[in-house]
Amino acid sequence: MNQISMPSPLEELIEPLRMTNQSTSVFIETLVISGSKIAATDREKEFIIWLAQKDQNVIGRGVVGFNIEEMPWIEDDFPEMKSFMLECIRGVINKLQWELLNDEPNEQWIKDTFEHFGTMIELFEEKFVNAENYIEWSTPDEGDDHPTIPRGYPKCAEHSVYLSCFGCLICNSNKGMNFK
Ligand SMILES: [Zn+2]
């Protein structure tokens, strides 16, 4: 089980999003393939790479939940990034790039789940942004050959999704399926 939650002062506005590990993989994969198609600026690509790191095939099942405030927000472009996330969410609901997935997700589940997530993003307020999270996440350690944000924002040649420091989310998922 993984949970996506709001900052505590906003908790009473909306339920957290709780998902099984399997559903979480579908959630992240559909969001990353949609966002990889839509992202144009470096900051937009960073948001997608941040999400692509929530790769249960690499870091383990049930450990990829997050709080909305942990996303790589900064004050400077808060409205723009909020709009970008909402556009990616609409992309998922409109099945953007679903041909890249092995299994067709349940349409109704996708709609319900992403409408819920979209409301969470809409309700999230700039005053809860802590740019320290972004700085800590994005600043490479000295001499690190595998920075958190791969240099030049490479995409998977096969799946056209942005690579995280763990590689391609879809390739990793396909490999993981062989172990089942
Ligand atoms: Zn791939």
How would you explain this protein's 3D organization?
The radius of gyration is 15 Å and the shape is globular. The longest helix is centred in the N-terminal third of the chain and has 18 residues, at 21-38. It has a 3-stranded mixed β-sheet with strand order 2-1-3. Helix 1 crosses helix 4 (78-93) and helix 4 runs antiparallel to helix 5. The protein starts with a strand and ends with a helix. The mean pLDDT is 94. It has one domain (2-177). It has helices at residues 21-38, 42-52, 56-59, 78-93, 107-123, 131-138, 169-177, and strands at 2-5, 17-19, 66-67. It is 46% helix and 5% strand. It has 180 residues and is mostly helical. Zinc ion (ZN) binds at residues 156, 158-159, 168, 170-171.
